[in-house]
Amino acid sequence: MGRKWNNIKDKKAAKDKNTSRIYAKFGREIYVAAKSGEPDPESNQNLKFVLERAKTYSVPKHIIDRAIEKAKGGGEEDFDELRYEGFGPGGSMLIVDALTNNVNRTASDVRAAFGKNGGNMGVSGSVSYMFENTAVFGFDGKTADDTLEILMEADLDVRDVLEDEGHVIVYAEPDQFAAVQNALKEAGVEEFTVAELSMLAQNELELTPADLETFEKLVDAIEDLEDVQTVHHNVEL
After folding, report:
1. Under DSSP, is residue 86 helix (H, G, I), strand (E, B) or coil?
2. Which of 18, 237, 8 is nearest to 140 (CA)?
3. Is the dihedral of CA 78, 83, 87, 89 positive or negative?
4. What is the distance between the alpha carbons of residues 22 and 15, in angstroms, rounded to a whole number?
5. Can you tell me the distance from the alpha carbon of 1 to that of 81, in angstroms, rounded to the nearest whole number?
6. How far apart are CA 234 and CA 80, in angstroms?
7. Residues whose CB falls within 8 Å of the CB of residue 193, separated by 6 or more in sequence, listed in order
8. Gap between the Cα atoms of 24 and 6, Å rounded
9. Can you list the pairs that 24-29 forms with residues at least 24 positions away whose Cβ atoms lie under 8 Å?
10. Residues 6 or more apart in contact with residue 82 via CB below 8 angstroms
């Protein structure tokens, strides 16, 4: 099942470590979503989407409430959504999504992280054409056949459904995110290990042990940056 499956396992494992960093990133994302429209998820679909994702990472209620209250109070911070593309060792490709209140700082930090860890920044479009924006869900308690039946009954035609050792992964079109999640919830899925919009590589790349070690250091350095929200890549882990 390759990198896609490993990427899901990585996200699941990430829920159990670096929680303070994850919570901080979600706090910023919730604030931005709440400020972009009404601070009510029932009338702000972007906020509703972010809150659903936050649940999969067990983001505490007080962090969510604080971010929304900050937006309600007319917080003066403005954030830009940025995407950087670049290359790592062995021909690896990376997409870096960021939220920042200082574009120059973030660009400098991301460029430095690439340059100091065996990578190079690319221009816009140099990498993204090799990735597909995909809605991804992971959960336990169902089989792939059960899941396909649930989605068919909901008149949803998804990209793929995979199963491994009782864990199911659904890949769907980005605009199907809410519909797929709602259908699964109505069918009894109470908790998702993953519920994300992710850039998935069309082709996976296997690195040599030496290149893989360098690549992992590169990803760690980028993910540690305050403004970086997500790193997508094409490496099979």
Report:
1. strand
2. 8
3. positive
4. 8
5. 31
6. 25
7. 8, 11, 12, 15, 56, 138, 139, 140, 167
8. 25
9. 24/226, 25/229, 26/50, 26/53, 26/54, 26/57, 26/59, 26/63, 26/64, 26/67, 27/59, 27/63, 27/64, 27/66, 27/67, 28/67, 28/79, 28/99, 28/229, 29/99, 29/229
10. 97, 98, 99, 100, 103, 106, 107, 227
152-187 b/e with 16+ CB inside 10 Å = b?
eeeebebeebbeeeebbbbbbbeebbebbbebbeeb
Closest CA to 233 of 135, 98, 87: 87
Question: Distance from CA of residue 195 to its chain's centroid?
Answer: 8
Query: Collapsing DSSP states into helix, strand and coil, what is residue 171?
Result: strand
What is the full per-residue pLDDT of the chain (237 aa) written as tens digits? 444 555 555 555 555 556 788 888 999 999 999 988 888 888 998 898 899 888 888 899 999 999 999 888 866 778 899 999 999 999 999 999 999 999 999 999 999 999 999 999 999 999 999 999 999 999 998 999 999 999 999 999 999 999 887 889 999 999 999 899 999 999 999 888 888 888 999 999 999 999 999 999 999 999 999 899 999 999 987
Token pair 């909901």 is found at 154
Q: Extract the tokens encoding 24.
A: 């901080």
Q: Are 182 and 120 in contact (CB under 8 A)?
A: no
Contact 86, 114 (CB under 8 A): yes
User: Which tokens belong to 148?
Assistant: 């396909």
